[in-house]
Design goal:
Blueprint: E1 5-14, E2 20-26, E3 31-35, E4 40-42, E5 52-60, E6 63-65, E7 72-80, E8 85-86, E9 92-95, E10 98-101, E11 113-123, E12 130-143, E13 150-154, E14 158-161, E15 167-168, E16 172-179, E17 183-189, E18 195-197, E19 211-214, E20 225-232, E21 238-247, E22 259-263, E23 267-272, E24 281-291, E25 294-296, E26 299-300, E27 310-314, E28 322-328, E29 341-350, E30 354-364, E31 376-381, E32 387-388, E33 394-403, E34 406-407, E35 412-420, E36 423-426, E37 434-438, E38 445-454, E39 457-467, E40 472-478, E41 483-485, E42 490-499, E43 502-504, E44 512-513, E45 525-528, E46 537-541, E47 546-548, E48 561-566, E49 580-581, E50 584-588, E51 595-602
Parallel strand pairs: 1-41, 3-12, 14-21, 23-30, 32-39, 44-45
Antiparallel strand pairs: 1-51, 2-5, 3-4, 5-6, 5-10, 7-8, 7-11, 9-10, 11-12, 13-16, 14-15, 16-19, 17-18, 17-20, 20-21, 22-24, 24-25, 24-28, 26-29, 27-28, 29-30, 31-33, 33-34, 33-37, 35-36, 35-38, 38-39, 40-42, 42-43, 42-50, 45-46, 46-47, 48-49, 48-51
Length: 603
């Protein structure tokens, strides 16, 4: 049978004296994300929709105390990181015992951790004594890693000379393409192999711009080639290119055309995280060859010298050029977390026999975690809210997971589970970082858990969804209140079922006893408390004797009631098995340890 409603009742076992407890709730996640690249915060506490509101929930012996109660006083303090407590600052205001923060306070805190502390005092009207409680809530700032940095040079690479000695084109324009770095300057490699600032001429009044004009007449040539590079604001990021002069053979066929071969990109930089791991990526460079001024198709052998995690594959010719595909597997360290550069050799057998080299480098750009080991933050949240209306529609559940300041996007596995019948049950096929819950799966309330396994450790978080307008609602009544004292107490718990404002399957009697009522009328009922166990029997007087009609098809209750228990931490008791059955059960001090939640599922 399907569960049509679920209700719960918490029984507290208190020592002498009234107990005050306080819990702090917040309307925003407890982690705020700082986008370093855009200088943005999410949620943005400075906006109307994003402002942080902290609301206390106060109980005296599990009786809720209204925040406007004149006997209630709440004083707030703040603490940055592991520092000392201090008074609230600008942008942190209290009204009606609720704290509102409308500034991004975490932005200026070096530790990225801010704790608000509530000191609660309540003047108990029953005893005249003031009782106290303290609660705190912490918020952490996570900064995203800076975007990867890169720089590369684009532009033609060949001056072609005809037999008359005329170069084509007359000049070449090189362009520096920059990502998250600023331009340094243009340099060339002189005949001694030293990098030298590119000479300034009327063509290039400045060598710090992102474009450079190269002419055959510039004093940069070593033989028939020139090697040019750019520097940037990051000394590890730059690029190098080579430019060549190729010449037709002499007129009449007496001469012989010279051949040259080169790479369109001789230097490739990969961005790695703080551990030296590179994300999966693919880059391409090309092998280009000329004989004289004629572009020809080179013959390329098998590349060698690739580090672990890198493959270089020569493809089929296109426009006489051989493409080289450089593929990096996910989380490759390219020879180790400490190795930062290397060389891949590209053998060429025609039009000349030579070996070209791809110079690769790796730059660790990921944000660095705290000394020792990054903290892993894992939470479950419902971006579209936690409430269904009349079991209609769906609600997505998402996870938010960070390893230090880096969002966990790979290397983790997930398993979603639902709490029902006293235990957590894994949901078949729910192994992604998101899970969509259908309203038809939530009866009154539905509690879901996601467990993430990452780096051989598990992390979990729980979220509860609510259906506000179920046809059935289950309320739990207690005949002797919610509090036992010094492990002494007894009560009967009654599950009352409602539908559209009308009680369904009502009580047969309001008598709960170990002994039968005296002088009963024919057809009278009572609930018989047993000498052991929580389950009671429904008894009916036939006119001459009492009979157990708990399972009698004529007289029994219409619905089935199954009870479970959870401890003060929300963990199932009784091995997750049912604690008792029936509309009415009996509970005494042996069944309650500090705080016990009794959950009734109605079918």
């Amino acid at each position: 049978m399907a569960i049509i409603a679920t209700g719960s009742k918490t029984i507290i076992d208190l020592s002498d004296g009234k107990s005050l407890s306080c819990y702090l709730g917040a309307n925003q996640p407890r982690t705020q994300i700082h986008d370093v690249n855009n200088s943005a915060y999410n949620p943005d506490w400075t906006t109307t929709a994003g402002k942080l509101v902290i609301t206390p929930v106060v109980y005296a012996n599990q009786t809720a105390i209204a925040l406007n109660n004149t006997a209630l006083t709440i004083t707030y303090k703040r603490k940055e990181g592991s520092g000392s407590e201090a008074a609230l600052a600008a942008g942190e205001t209290v009204s009606g015992n609720t704290l509102t923060v409308n500034q991004n306070k975490l932005a200026s805190i070096a530790s990225g951790l801010l704790t608000y502390i509530a000191y609660v005092a309540y003047a108990d009207p029953d005893t005249g004594l003031t009782i106290n409680a303290t609660a705190d809530i912490s918020f952490a700032l996570i900064s995203t890693g800076e975007n990867a940095k890169s720089a590369w040079i684009s532009g033609e690479q060949v001056f072609k000379y005809n037999t008359a000695g005329t170069a084509s084109p007359a000049q070449i324009t090189l362009t520096a393409n920059l990502q998250n770095v600023t331009m340094g300057k243009w340099q060339y490699k002189n005949s001694s192999g030293a990098w030298t600032d590119y000479p300034t001429t009327s063509d290039n009044a400045s060598i710090t711009g992102t474009t450079l004009i190269v002419k055959p007449t510039h004093a940069i040539w070593v033989g028939e080639s020139a090697t040019i590079r750019i520097t940037t604001s990051d000394t590890a990021i730059g690029d190098t290119t080579s430019i060549y002069k190729v010449t037709d053979g002499t007129a009449g066929g007496a001469g012989k055309d010279a051949s040259t071969v080169f790479l369109t990109n001789e230097n490739i930089t990969f961005a790695a995280n703080k551990d030296g791991k590179v994300a999966a990526t693919t880059k391409t460079c090309k092998v280009v060859a000329y004989t004289g001024t004629t572009k020809v198709t080179p013959t390329v052998g098998t590349p060698t010298g690739m580090p672990t995690g890198m493959s270089v594959t020569a493809g089929s010719a296109s426009s006489n050029e051989i493409p080289l595909t450089i593929t990096i597997t996910a989380n490759a360290t390219l020879g180790g977390s400490g190795q930062q550069n290397g060389v891949v050799s590209i053998p060429v057998t025609s039009p000349i026999s030579t070996t070209l080299q791809i110079q690769w480098s790796k730059v660790n750009t990921g944000a660095t975690g705290a000394a020792g080991q990054n903290a892993v933050v894992f939470t479950v949240y419902a971006p579209n809210g936690t409430t269904f209306v009349n079991q209609n529609g769906t609600l997505p559940l998402n996870v938010q997971a960070y390893d230090g300041s880096t969002a966990i996007s790979s290397g983790a596995t997930y398993q979603w589970a639902k709490y029902a019948s006293g235990t957590w049950t894994n949901i078949s096929g729910a192994t992604a970082a998101t899970y969509t819950v259908s309203g038809s799966d939530v009866v009154s309330t539905g509690t879901f858990r996601c467990t993430m396994t990452y780096n051989s450790k598990t992390y979990s978080d729980v979220i509860t969804l609510v259906d506000k307008t179920d046809n059935y609602q289950a309320d739990i009544d207690s005949t002797a209140g919610d509090v036992f004292k010094n492990t002494v107490g007894q009560t009967c718990l009654i599950c009352r079922l409602w539908q559209n404002g009308r009680e369904v399957d009502p009580l047969k009697s309001t008598t709960y006893s170990t002994t039968a009522p005296s002088s009963p009328a024919t057809g009278a009922f009572y609930y018989q408390i047993q000498s052991s166990g929580a389950t009671t029997k429904l008894m009916r007087y036939s006119g001459s004797a009492w009979a157990d009609v708990t399972s009698n098809a004529t007289y029994k209750h219409e619905k089935n009631y199954t009870w479970y228990r959870r401890d003060k931490d929300g963990n199932p008791l009784d091995g997750g098995e049912a604690f008792a059955t029936g509309k009415v059960i009996y509970v005494d001090g042996d069944d309650v340890d500090t705080k016990t939640v009794f959950v009734c599922e109605v079918e």
